[in-house]
Amino acid sequence: MVPLVKAVQEQQAIIETQNKTLAQLQQENQQMKAELAQIKAALGLK
């Protein structure tokens, strides 16, 4: 039973790391979208 608990804890740690990475990438993506919109506006594009 103990190895199962350890495996679940390891998986949870991996999930938490992935969730943090996902949140960071989503934030970076929003920033890049905003920058792209500014660049398009400066160039007179849609």
Secondary structure topology:
Elements: H1 2-43
Task: Give an account of the 3D structure.
The chain is mainly alpha-helical and 46 residues long. It is 91% helix and 0% strand. The N and C termini lie far apart (59 Å). The model has no long low-confidence stretch (mean pLDDT 96).
Broad structural category? mainly alpha
Low-confidence stretches: none
What percent of the residues sit in helical stretches (DSSP H or I)? over 70%
Strand content: under 5%
How many extended strands?
A: 0
Distance between the termini: 59 Å
Query: With helices defined by DSSP (H or I, 4 residues minimum), what is the helix count?
Result: 1
Tell me, rounded to a whole number, the average pLDDT. 96
Broad shape: rod-shaped
What radius of gyration results from the CA coordinates? 20 Å
**Main pleated sheet:** none
Helix/strand order, N-terminal first: H
